[in-house]
Design goal:
The protein is α/β, with parallel strands linked by helices and about 250 residues long. It has helices spanning about 15-25, 50-55, 75-90, 105-115, 150-160, 160-170, 180-190, 200-205, 210-220, 235-249; strands at about 5-10, 30-35, 60, 95-100, 120, 140-145, 195-200. The chain has a single domain (about 5-245), classed as TIM Barrel, CATH 3.20.20.370. The chain has 10 helices and 7 strands. α5 packs antiparallel against α6 (about 160-170) and α7 (about 180-190) runs parallel beside α9 (about 210-220).
């Protein structure tokens, strides 16, 4: 097996994140939870006590204070800063990661995230095995959601890096269940090396009845990914930095 890093991340801070955390722990995987402290869309958000419960085992990152898209508000820098302060106050420790709501970012937004004291940020670029060369552009491999082929094609066109992602696009366009796509992509990642990054929203797992799919995938991955290759997002960034430094020696 080539060098493969396996990571997961979960957005929006819904209370069902605790169920995701339970599955991660059961199968021995790491994960990062990106949490707002309110949600203007009306969805529930973990309480302070639930946040601390998640943070006792897993990495926590910021996701704006009110779960807002940063191109649609005037106070984006405040949203980025205040969620960091609130989470750190609850956990009693610093956090290093941020996730752009809706995947919306540009150079100015990335600078705001960096200035707020975050060390990295995650995007929603799918179909990637590449370790990030820019810590504020951490990509993903597959969203845990029953996307159509058209959606995968649109994401592929919009998110660039087409040459490296084309093989993974062919895999998901074969069709089949989410579980089949995930297993095929992980098998390919093991052969090629790099990063396999699964992400999703716990409230969508409930909405689309995907819990069994997730558990079956974790059972499949557990037998194929060595424990010391299972990282959270911050650890992936550290691994990418170490690889980059080795390449320049």
């Amino acid at each position: 097996m080539r060098s493969l890093w396996f990571t997961t991340s979960w957005d929006d801070g819904h209370p069902l994140d605790l169920r995701v955390a339970e599955l991660l722990a059961r199968y021995g995987f790491r994960g990062t939870f990106y949490v707002p402290r309110r949600n203007i869309e009306g969805r529930s958000v973990v309480s302070n006590a639930e946040l601390r419960e998640l943070g006792a085992q897993f990495e926590i990152g910021g996701h704006t204070f009110d779960h807002v898209r940063l191109d649609a508000v005037r106070d984006g820098d405040r949203q980025i800063r205040t969620v960091k302060y609130a989470i750190e106050d609850d956990l009693g420790r610093a956090i290093s990661g941020f996730c752009y709501p809706g995947g919306v970012h540009d150079p100015a937004i990335r600078d705001q995230v960096r200035t707020a004291g975050y060390q990295y940020a995650r995007t929603i670029q799918n179909l990637s095995f590449a370790l990030p060369t820019d810590p504020f552009l951490l990509g993903t491999t597959l969203q845990l959601y029953p996307h159509t082929r058209v959606t995968y094609l649109k994401n592929f066109v919009r998110r660039q890096d087409w040459r490296r992602r084309a093989g993974n696009l062919r895999v998901v366009l074969r069709g089949g269940s989410f579980g089949a796509r995930a297993r095929d992509l992980l098998t390919r990642a093991i052969e090629t090396g790099g990063m396999f990054h699964l992400w999703g929203h716990s409230w969508e797992l409930e909405e689309h009845d995907l819990w069994d799919e997730l558990e079956a995938f974790f059972a499949f991955a557990r037998d194929r990914v060595p424990r010391d290759h299972r990282l959270d997002n911050a650890e992936v960034i550290a691994a990418a930095s170490a690889v980059s430094k080795l390449a320049t020696v």
